Amino acid sequence: MPALSIVFLALAVSHLLLLGIYIAIYHRNSVLGVLVGCLILSLVAGLLGEELNTVVRPSSGTFAIYLTMAFNRIGNLSVLLTWLIALKLFDDDSEIRQIHSSVWILAITALIGRSIGSYYANYGIEFGTLFNLVTWGYSQAVLFGFSLASIYIAVKGYRSDLVLERRKERVIFVLCVAVLLILMAGNRGVWVLTTLAGESIFRGPPLPEIAYSIYAYFVTVALILWKFRVANLSTKEGKAKQTANPNAQQPNELDQELMTSIRAAMEDEKLYHQSNLTVARLAEHVASQEYLVRRAINNHMGYRNFSDFLNHYRIDETSRLLAETNEPISNVGFDVGYTSLSSFYKAFKAKHAITPKKYRALHNPNG
Questions:
Q1: Could you give the 3-state DSSP secondary structure of residue 305?
Q2: Residue 220: its pLDDT value, please?
Q3: Does 317 map to a domain?
Q4: Is the Cβ–Cβ distance between 186 and 144 less than 8 Å?
Q5: Which CATH number goes with the domain that contains 44?
Q6: What is the pTM of this model?
Q7: Averaged pLDDT of the chain
Q8: Which of 199, 233, 267 finishes a domain?
Q9: Same domain, residue pair 229 and 324
Q10: What is the 3-state secondary structure (H, E, C) of 197-231?
Q11: Residue 302 carries which DSSP code?
Q12: How far is CA 36 from CA 80, 148, 169, 177, 233, in A?
């Protein structure tokens, strides 16, 4: 193991542990704090496992082989943890306890398959392509999928996110965490592909170990700089609510005028009927700059994302129409601006905890 690689490995691990200690002291009681702490431990194990892979051989002692396998499996958990953190940070409507059981089955079976393949590989026992495909190939595809899902979650809500600081966090998350995991999965993925192609399973990954150690070090430095924002965001629990930001300044005269224009556009002109309405379009409509509109809706009107803002007006009108008219429910959803029935029903149940059909039955018996 080259000395320079050891130096960067030590720096990366020390920075991660420093970040972990900070999280453990100040944010151990939050769900996000626990997830970040587990991610840090998983990344440390993954870094150590990657380095041990370069020195442990089938002829090594049993303890060394099992230790390497344990570090690598714990390191694999970082992909799942990153996905969970992305949900917690960037998806206001997600709840970890509501994640479908199939997701957990995917993760567990991938780790089991990886463990089986790793066990035989570490002891120099080679099997056919089908065995490698079921163990290495399947697990690699699942891990890579979770990495891509993490990036997708961070990217998909960027335009509609009204929390200006969180928009920056999405970019930082993708660059500093998800990309690192993609490189880990991709690097090991090439190694897996050579195995499936019939080449030696002991051929090393394509990236030099020193390049990985250097990259890991600079990512952990970025994470250290990011820790204060993670701390702030970790206080967010549950779904976004329509409450004013307590840290925001009181609206000045210009803010008041802008909010008046926004409310007029939504309440009088019913701009939310436009299914393709975005923050940019709203800003153009009220003759203001986009960042000012985002700030007004978030800081002074109390919405974390634009979808919640639109749903407030759309579901209010939907509720009135269901109670006062006999218009078909699907027509009502499309008329107020929804582009699909699934998104309409989801938004309606989020507010009223019942379906539109049950709501009409309760408030409009003749409907």
A1: strand
A2: 65
A3: yes
A4: yes
A5: 1.20.1070
A6: 0.77
A7: 81
A8: 233
A9: no
A10: CCCCCCCCCCCCHHHHHHHHHHHHHHHHHHHHHHH
A11: -
A12: 12, 19, 14, 11, 12
| Cβ neighbours, 10 Å, residue 92 | 21
| Contact between 69 and 75 (Cβ < 8 Å) | no
pLDDT higher than 80, residue 39 = yes
Q: Residue 75 falls within a domain, yes or no?
A: yes
What is the predicted pLDDT for the residue at 186?
62
Residue written as token pair 């079921």: 134
Indicate the residue type of 21.
I
Cα R_g (the chain), whole angstroms: 25
Tell me the residue range of the domain where 291 lies: 253-363
Contacts of 229 (CB under 8 A, 6+ apart): 165, 169, 172
In terms of domains, do 193 and 225 share one? yes
221 C-beta neighbours (distance < 10 Å), count: 14
Q: Which residue has the higher pLDDT, 127 or 143?
A: 143
Whether 243 is covered by a domain: the verdict is: no
Whether residue 123 is contained in a domain is answered as yes
Question: Which has the closest alpha carbon to 362: 335, 353, 347?
Answer: 353
pLDDT single digits (tens) 260-270? 999 999 999 99
Note whether 8 and 213 are within 8 A (CB): yes
